[in-house]
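Chapter review: from sequence to fold.
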Amino acid sequence: MTATAAAVTVSLLIRMLREAFEGPPGPWTYFTDTSPGTGAFGTISGLSAVQASEPGGPSRTTIAGHVNHLSSSLALSTLGLRGQPTSRDRARSWTVTTVDDRSWADLQARLRREYESLVVAVETHAVWDEDALGVAFGAIAHAAYHLGALRQRLAPPQT
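The token string follows.
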């Protein structure tokens, strides 16, 4: 991959990660709603620990469980881009179901840290081969999936 192609690839990956977590970049999007607060951080920021702990959906998962799972997945993606060994034992990432105020705040902070670490790993990754691109695009697709799951759990806006 040429230096120009690598720079474009990194720029695109970062923009898509930002959209998934921070929300849309402007009046257009790749995959989210254009409304403010539609990224993962905006979606969960106003939720209480009680709301984050309510089971729902077909699997009766909680928002806290999704956030913990997503945080774990981001950490694995970061390790993968850094060439470190990873384990894809997804069952361990679903161990959180209920949270209190303190653990909910900690879990949200962890999600932000793992996201920021992945952004740095993408920005500094040297060789964008098939494996690295698979890790990065996989992280984006996985984040978009869980963002949709989180947003589906919220009550529709009052009109």
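Two observations follow directly from the output. The mean pLDDT is 91. The first helix runs from residue 3 to 22.
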